[in-house]
Design goal:
Layout: H1 5-18, E1 30-34, E2 40-45, H2 54-59, E3 71-76, H3 88-95, E4 99-104, H4 114-120, E5 124-127, H5 131-137, H6 139-147, E6 151-159, H7 177-188, E7 192-196, H8 197-203, E8 210-211, E9 214-215, E10 221-225, E11 244-246, H9 251-260, E12 265-270, H10 272-280, E13 286-292, E14 317-325, E15 328-335
Parallel strand pairs: 3-4, 4-5, 6-12, 6-13, 7-10, 7-12, 10-11
Antiparallel strand pairs: 1-2, 1-3, 8-9, 13-15, 14-15
Helix pairs in contact: 3-4
Length: about 350
C-alpha cells in the first residue's frame, strides 16, 4: 500500500514531535496515530531514557480499543526488544494497530526487527517515508548502533591555500566571528570535544561551548589524546566536566572507550596531526572545513598524512552544504561511500 497524503503529513508532524525529546543514549522519536479515515487520534514522543517510547506515549492518550484499525506513523522502526520498556512492536499489535508507516530503519542487533514482527502479526508496514530527515535527526544514535562507536565529526579552519596556521605557528584567528560562533554552536551539540596535546600546548583552548562569553547550558566532555603532559594550569582543567586523557596512538581504543562511556557524538577540533590520524583510520562520519579568504603560505598544512599514496586513492567527499559565514565559507561534507557501502535504508511495503 502506498503512503497517502494524510500519512505524509503525519510523518512531518512526527518529526517535529521527535525533536522535542532530549538527545541522549536513546534516539529522538515521534509518533502520530491516525484513524482509518486519516484523522489524528493521538501524538507522542520519547521523553528520555526509561520513559515510554514514542508509540507507547501516543497510545497512552487513547482509551482502550480506540486504536483498533488505526495507523501508527513513526519516525523510527518500532523496536523489537525488552529493555527498561517493552517492545513497541508488541504494544502496537496488542493495541489493534492495522498499519504502520515508519521513516528510518533500526539497525540495532537487539532493537531491530520490529517491522518483521509486525508483518508476521498481519500488520501492513510501509518504510522509508521522509527517511533522510529522520536519519539526520538521530545520526549519532544510528552510527552507534551500526558501528559500535560514536558519530565522529572532524573540524578544521584553513586559509584558501590550505594552511591551518602561519609559519610562526599562530592560528588565532584565521576565521571571523560568525564562523567561530558556528563552531561553538556545533560544540554544544556534541557529547565530547577532542584535541591533541600539541593543540593544548600551542593554543591553551578552554574546550567549552560558549554564546559570546557565556557558557552554553550543554558542555561537551573535553578529551585530550597524546603522550605529552598537559600543563597543570591548562584552561581545559577548569572545564565544567572532568577532562579525559588518553596516552595512546590507537584511536580505535579511544573511540571504543568513549562509546563505552555513553558518548555518541564526538567533535574533533585538532590539530592537523590528530585530524589527519582520524581520517587515515577511517573514523570520520562528517567533515567541517571553515575556509577563510586569506593566503598564508608556508608549511603548516591543515592536514598531514592521511594515507593517500596516489590520486587514485584520494579520499572523496560528498559536499552536503556550502554555508556562508560572514567573510568565510563552511563546507559540510561526509566521506563518499565506495561501491557497495551505500548507507541508505529502504524497505518495501506490504
Amino acid at each position: 500500500m502506498a503512503v497517502n497524503e494524510a500519512e505524509r503529513t503525519a510523518m512531518s508532524r512526527a518529526l517535529e514531535l521527535a525533536s522535542l525529546g532530549p538527545r541522549g543514549a536513546n534516539p529522538q522519536v515521534g509518533a502520530v496515530i491516525l484513524s482509518p479515515t486519516g484523522e489524528v487520534l493521538a501524538e507522542g514522543w520519547h521523553h528520555g531514557a526509561g520513559t515510554p517510547h514514542a508509540e507507547v506515549d501516543a497510545l497512552s492518550h487513547l482509551a482502550p480499543g480506540a486504536a483498533h484499525g488505526a495507523t501508527a506513523v513513526v519516525t523510527l522502526e518500532p523496536c523489537n526488544h525488552t529493555g527498561r520498556t517493552g517492545p513497541c512492536s508488541v504494544a502496537l499489535i496488542e493495541a489493534g494497530i492495522s498499519r504502520v508507516v515508519y521513516a528510518a530503519a533500526d539497525p540495532g542487533a537487539e532493537s531491530g526487527g520490529g517491522a518483521e514482527r509486525l508483518r508476521d502479526a498481519g500488520v501492513s508496514v510501509d518504510a522509508g517515508e521522509q527517511a533522510e530527515a529522520a536519519r539526520d535527526l538521530i545520526a549519532d544514535w544510528l552510527t552507534a548502533q551500526r558501528l559500535g562507536r560514536p558519530q565522529i565529526t572532524v573540524k578544521w579552519a584553513q586559509s584558501l591555500d590550505g594552511r591551518a596556521a602561519a609559519d610562526d605557528g599562530t592560528s588565532q584567528w584565521i576565521t571571523g566571528p560568525a564562523a567561530r560562533a558556528d563552531v561553538h554552536r556545533r560544540r554544544s551539540e556534541a557529547d565530547a570535544i577532542v584535541v591533541g596535546t600539541g593543540t593544548v600546548i600551542a593554543d591553551n583552548p578552554a574546550l567549552t561551548a560558549r554564546i559570546g562569553e557565556t557558557l552554553h547550558p550543554h558542555q561537551p566532555v573535553p578529551v585530550v589524546i597524546g603522550s605529552r603532559t598537559t600543563p597543570a594550569d591548562a584552561a581545559l582543567r577548569r572545564h565544567p566536566h572532568q577532562p579525559l586523557f588518553y596516552d595512546t596512538r590507537d584511536l580505535h581504543v579511544v573511540v571504543a572507550d568513549l562509546h563505552a562511556r555513553g558518548i555518541q557524538k564526538v567533535f574533533i577540533e585538532g590539530g592537523p596531526t590528530l585530524a589527519s590520524a582520524f581520517i587515515a583510520a577511517d573514523l570520520v562520519d562528517q567533515v567541517l572545513v571553515y575556509l577563510a579568504p586569506v593566503l598564508l603560505g608556508g608549511h603548516r598544512l591543515a592536514l598531514t598524512d592521511i594515507a593517500v599514496p596516489t590520486i587514485a586513492a584520494a579520499r572523496r567527499l560528498t559536499i552536503d552544504e556550502w554555508l556562508p559565514l560572514g567573510a568565510d565559507v563552511l563546507a559540510v561534507g561526509h566521506p563518499t561511500p565506495s561501491s557497495g557501502e551505500d548507507k541508505n535504508e529502504n524497505e518495501g511495503a506490504s
